[in-house]
Amino acid sequence: MLWSLVIGRVAGTAIRIHVTFLLFLAWIGFSAFRHGGQAEALQSVLFIVLLFLCVLLHEFGHIFMARHYGIQTPDVTLLPIGGVASLERIPEKPSQELAVAIAGPAVNVVIAIGLILLLGSLTPADITKIDDPGLGLIARLASANIFLVLFNMVPAFPMDGGRVLHAILSMRIGPQRAMQAAARIGQGLAFVLGFLGLFGNPLLIFIAIFVYVAAAAEAQDSVMRDAFVGLSVADAMETRIASVPATATLEQAVDILLATPQHEFPVVDAFGKPVGLLVREDIIMALRTRERDAPVMEFARAPVAGVRAVAPLQKALDDMRASGAAAVSVVGEDGELLGLLTPQNVAEMMMIKQARPDWRFGR
Ligand SMILES: [Zn+2]
User: Fold this and answer.
1) Could you read off the pLDDT of 255-272 as tens digits, one per residue?
2) How many angstroms separate the CA atoms of 252 and 37, rounded?
3) Which end of the chain, N or C, is surrounded by fewer C-beta atoms within 10 Å?
4) pTM score > 0.70 for this model?
5) Distance in Å, CA 253 to ligand 1 centroid
6) Per-chain residues with Cβ under 5 A from ion ligand 1
7) Cα dist. 187→110, 153, 180, 181, 211 in Å?
């Protein structure tokens, strides 16, 4: 995530703090200082730091459970709105999805019970006085952990409760229909929240919009992922493509650009293997600064490793998105150019899938 600093590493997972979190901390300290001086400022900042330590432990609940199922967890980022652990994937088995989702709130349950035992008692009235410094730090932290459990168990994406709901529904009606049902329940809940917000806390309206958008995005993403299951790069690649020989000049590249509807061209060597990629913008840029006979290899993009035609499509798209490449050359067993993978191709395949979900790709 941009604008975040790594402050440490636990069991291979980097802990990042977003700059806005530090600003948030400064703002809390400053407003407490104006209200009650140095002592109150210190106490407020200490409370927020401890609260976010609980949030971090919550995220590590998810992380350690995901690790247990062999899922990689590169990092966790603290934001003013909470923590975000990046998981390489969501487990496909509903029982594992349930375990990973519930491990986070379970940590806060344990912390809350521990703190209440330490205190001796915590009345329901105390729980609502979370922002009252007179209550004492430990009681406030115990209340905050109870809130974290309740808030995270709201059955809507992106809250853990949404995942729990999806996992439980998956066991009965399958993951695909469960995703649609969970998204619909989440969006229905967002409407109720928004409606309540109109009469009470405006913050609820903000949360409602957030939940609504997240539920829709989650459902969309899962539809995409489902559509790609079992498909290889060969199923989605463009095969009738023009390529540019590595020995070509700028003038020849311009001719090829005009002769085809393509925007991206693999540059191939004498053996037909891709050694670079030429994008329309590169050619236009070169026209401004170079001579007609300039060799294309001087302004082509560095050879991105070609993706194998038999590789899973989802993996190739994830890699493509991560590298920011406009297109990727697809190669055969001996590294020879077979086609080109572009976002437009994938979009066309999605249209076909949407019109005819049972359409068989591949050959
Ligand atoms: Zn969580």
Assistant:
1) 999 999 888 999 988 888
2) 73
3) C
4) no
5) 52
6) 104, 160
7) 30, 15, 11, 10, 7
